Amino acid sequence: MEALVASAVGVMTAAGIFLILRRRTFPVILGLSLLTYAVNVFLFATGRLALDAPAVLNKYKEVPYTDPLPQALVLTAIVISFGMTAVIVMIALSAYLSSKDDHIDMNANDSVDAPGEDA
């Protein structure tokens, strides 16, 4: 089970980084969302992958339990990533409406000259 979750986190991370490196804004937003999903699954997996295990310990019985802290962290991370995605979508939308293009501006004219080069 852990190997499956670890490979899923790896695939989501690789796909997210691949999409973030694109030149259009929509794939960048999707890549950022995939990265946040990968982090959420990773945080969830740190709380022990136990099926049908309670999140609260029973002091009278020795039963496997699930740590509730990673679940709370994942819930918080979901809310934060939703807000962050909404802000990034609005920034991308305003950039598209102002320039009528959704390409990320990577012109060579905007680069800073290296030290020692004449401008």
From TrEMBL:
Membrane-protein topology? Multi-pass membrane protein
Against Gene3D superfamilies, the record matches this protein to:
1.10.287.3510
Key words of the record: Cell membrane, Membrane, Transmembrane, Transmembrane helix
Q: Pfam family of this protein, just one?
A: Oxidored_q2
Name the domain of life this protein comes from: Bacteria
Instruction: Name where it mostly resides.
Output: membrane
Q: Where are the transmembrane segments?
A: 6-21, 28-51, 71-97
Which subcellular locations apply to this protein? Cell membrane
Gene Ontology CC, one term: plasma membrane
Q: What protein family is recorded? A: Belongs to the CPA3 antiporters (TC 2.A.63) subunit C family.
PANTHER family assigned to the protein according to its UniProt record, in alphabetical order: ANTIPORTER SUBUNIT MNHC2-RELATED
| Protein name from the UniProt record | Multiple resistance and pH homeostasis protein C
Species source reads: Ruegeria atlantica
Q: What gene codes for this chain?
A: mrpC
